[in-house]
Design goal:
Layout lengths: L2 H16 L4 H5 L2 H10 L3 H11 L12 E2 L9 H11 L7 E2 L1 E2 L11 E3 L2 E2 L7 E3 L4 H4 L13 E8 L4 H10 L5 E5 L16 H4 L2 E5 L10 H5 L4 E5 L3 E2 L14 E3 L6 H9 L2 H16 L4 H18 L4
Parallel strand pairs: 3-4, 4-6, 7-8, 7-9, 9-10, 10-12
Antiparallel strand pairs: 1-2, 5-11
Helix pairs in contact: 3-12, 4-12
Length: about 300
């Protein structure tokens, strides 16, 4: 069984194994867990993250929302499993509005979602850690930066014009390994076979390009010993893409990726700076690998949501 299949199997086995546990047992623990935030050694960071995920600060009403007690959405199974894991700590009568999938258009009212636009346009989108099976795949990279192949790599499904432009510019360039993984329907070229995560990690430089929303691979790239190159992000999720700093967590390239090879040459000549960025990226990732802390932040976000909606 491949790494991808094993990752998915573990996820669904874990989620289904939790299913029989009565929700009442989780509801009894809610207040105790919220109090644990004040005892946590990184309580300021946890509260800062929660405030970032729910940026609306005005009271609002839940209009025609879903009640926790009768909530089901099997069409989006991974989203459903992930949101249910934190909703079960709250009373069954509470209502909420949610949106699953890659939509990032601002909702009319505060809505629980996976992703949003960075900036004022996303203030009514309340972020939770959703679709974890696809987005939260970290790696334990055993190959040090200096031992990797001195090239840039990117693979991705091309459905957006900015990804098509990356492929058009660089798929034939011998100094990098860039290609689309879906066969083009028209005259576009640039198809190359998929590369596994471990195959991509053989390279020093990995490009991340947003798709329908965030770049899915950004999480495992920033957990590795490879250097992340990307344009300044427009979308953000639980991974706090809006808090990533160019030159500290990743190497920024132009929005149209026109300076990509120039930026790669810069960091070929500056290995110490490259490794410092890699270390900072790894430190950013560290906060998302602690399950207990992740649960506490999720509960803080939902508690605030239900308070602002006048239900708690």
């Amino acid at each position: 069984m491949g790494h991808h299949s094993l990752h998915n199997l573990r996820y669904y086995v874990e989620r289904f194994s939790e299913w029989p546990i009565p929700a009442v047992l989780f509801r009894r623990r809610l207040q105790g867990l919220l109090r644990k935030v004040d005892e946590h050694p990184e309580r300021d960071r946890l509260r800062s993250r929660a405030d970032y995920y729910i940026q609306c600060d005005e009271p609002f009403e839940v209009c025609g929302g879903t009640r926790i007690g009768n909530f089901q959405d099997w069409v989006h199974s991974s989203y459903y499993f992930d949101i249910r894991r934190v909703l079960r700590y709250f009373p069954a009568h509470l209502g909420f509005e949610y949106r699953f999938g890659d939509e990032t258009d601002p909702p009319e009212r505060p809505t629980l979602t996976k992703a949003r636009l960075i900036g004022e346009g996303g203030r009514r989108s309340v972020i939770l850690k959703l679709n974890q099976v696809r987005h939260y795949r970290f790696v334990n990279d055993r190959v040090p930066y200096e031992a990797k192949e001195d090239r840039l790599v990117w693979r991705g499904n091309v459905t957006r014009p900015w990804r098509a432009e990356v492929v058009r510019r660089y798929h034939a360039d011998p100094s990098c390994d860039v290609g689309r993984t879906n066969h083009p329907e028209g005259p576009e070229q640039g198809y190359k076979p998929r590369l596994s995560i471990s195959e991509q990690l053989r390279h020093k430089f990995i490009l991340c390009v947003e798709g329908n929303d965030v770049a899915t691979g950004l999480k495992w790239v920033m957990s590795s010993n490879s250097l992340c190159f990307m344009a300044r992000p427009r979308f953000e999720t639980w991974f706090l893409e809006g808090r990533l700093e160019p030159g500290r967590h990743f190497v920024e390239v132009a929005a149209d990726h026109s300076d990509l090879l120039e930026r790669v040459e810069e960091y070929r000549a500056r290995p110490e700076e490259a490794m410092e960025i890699v270390r900072n990226a790894n430190e950013h990732v560290r906060q998302f690998r602690d399950r207990r802390s992740e649960t506490l932040v999720s509960l803080l976000v939902l508690a605030r949501y239900f308070e602002l909606s006048g239900q708690l």
